[in-house]
Amino acid sequence: MPPSNPPVVKIIPLGGLGEIGKNTMAIECGDDIFLVDCGLAFPTDEMLGVDLVLPDISYLADNQHKLRGLAITHGHEDHIGGVTFLLKDVTLPVIYGPALAIGLLEGKLDEAGLANRTTLHKVGPRQRVKFGCFEVEFIRSTHSIADSYCLVIRSPIGNIVHTGDFKFDFTPVDEEQFDIARLAAACEEGVVALLSDSTNSEREGFTPSERTVWHKLNEIFAQAQGRLIVTTFASNVNRVRQVLQAAINYNRKVAVLGRSMLTFASKARDLGYMKYPDGLLIPVESINQLPPKEVVILTTGSQGEPMSALTRIANDEHRRIKIIAGDTVIISATPIPGNERSVANTINALFERGANVIYGRDAGVHVSGHACQEELKLMINLTRPKFFIPVHGEYRMLVKHGQLAVGCGVEKDNVFIMANGDVVHLSADKGFMGEKVKSGINLIDFNRDWQIDEDIVEERQRLADDGMVAVAISLDPNGRLSAGPDVSLRGLIIPRGMPVEELVIRIRKEALTILDQEMVHDPSLLKSKVEAHLNEFFANDLKSSPLVHVLVMRANIQARPFDPQEKKVDEKGRRVIRKLKSEN
């Protein structure tokens, strides 16, 4: 007889769905929860003053007693960058991951003083580890960073495959092939659910091999007569290897700019993912002592980050590097969605300073690390899942990937397009969307290690868009108006033809309207009513939404007892308000 309560596995994304970045997936069965990745995202232009965006991990904190550990698929920041912040709120028994990712994490945890909050273990291809009732096998895959894995998760309901970020690269630079044979063998056991990378689900065909970039880089190095400035993702170890090899072939020395680039290069060399002679890298201060045709500058800034080395060079703000005639800049990356404007601004500035800039998808200096449609179909047909959950992508990407799965034979009702916080319940033969859990974002000011409330970011946006109006009101001990309203404007765009003085008078009159109508014995109530009225005034009359701040002050004198029956200010107070109105 089958058990009366068959096991159920819950798939709970806390980040990475409906967006690019902060990939964090909780997988739960009974009293066991383990995580696949824990990443961060970078702020959009609207998130003023925000340095990092993290997933809300309240659900994990509330279920600390169930947490069995974390499995990492690869070492990109959108998959490991949130670990240090996670460990400030919860304790993980163990973290398993590739050697490169674990090596990077060791440095992060030591720097944050969190090394004692968990145990780190490096895993190799085909190694299996336990997380409570789950057994996870790491299977070698190919991506834009070395040492990447997909996961076969053996659960009480059957096998679940999580692809991680992947593409099928049959000629990888590091010669570490996708272990398709092992994945196929594991899938022969049957796959209940496939969770698959959706980043390139809108792009037809196959993603080119990383090796195709080499031919273009080699051509550029052969033709360049001046300095070469190359930017790429610091984590793209294989791309950095190619740049270093080209520098060796053409007798150039390499100066590395950017902390993340130095960290990745050093860690990759220590772990054997990158080899280069000791004399290849030189200090930045030494480049001016060499002829331009003997110099390569390898730098961060491929996404137009405001404080990155390349952006500062483009804006002529770098202390040591200035663009000179004959420089060739290679942007060996494509913009992450949301960064297009920043990247374009950097490219424009480089051209303005006289550089020759090689960039864009058609330039041949970059290929994606994510699978296109034909590879996604191959993964679906290889695993033949009963249930399909597209992950890692904006909503339209998830929908498109779901359509590809239906085209490959997955039943439409068995495809779940999820959002962060959704919960899919899976048994061996049934799946459904259940209750949601708390999810969202945490915003970090990294320099101060402060968590920023979303309301503060919204206020900053209003300040940037429409400016600020401050209104100060003074009340005497009996609640009568004694001074003000005083109005101060900052950053407001005044309607054409309206003098500033006229707008100030109108704002004072609107504030006095509330003072004439409402009780003024409760300063906080008066503050909220005046702010609400002025917000309505600006929205209706001036079609704007400035940040309105009202300050209500009370004289520091003993007031007479307040009569609860008193509904209005007394007649003397009314006369003061009417006098002020007439003056304005």
Beta-strand residue percentage: 15-25%
- What's the domain count? 3
Q: Name the average pLDDT.
A: 86
CATH architecture of the largest domain: 4-Layer Sandwich
Q: What class do helices, strands and sheet pairing give?
A: alpha/beta
| Number of helical stretches of at least 4 residues | 16
**CATH homologous superfamily of the largest domain, by name?**
Ribonuclease Z/Hydroxyacylglutathione hydrolase-like
Which value, in Å, is the CA radius of gyration?
Answer: 30 Å
Q: Write out the strand line-up for the largest beta sheet, numbering strands in chain order.
A: 7-6-5-3-2-1-19-20
Q: N-to-C terminal Cα separation, in Å? A: 87 Å
Task: Report the strand count.
Answer: 25
Helix content: 25-40%
Low-pLDDT stretches: 559-570
The biggest sheet amounts to: 8 strands, mixed
Q: Give the oligomer, counting copies of the same chain as homo and different chains as hetero.
A: single chain
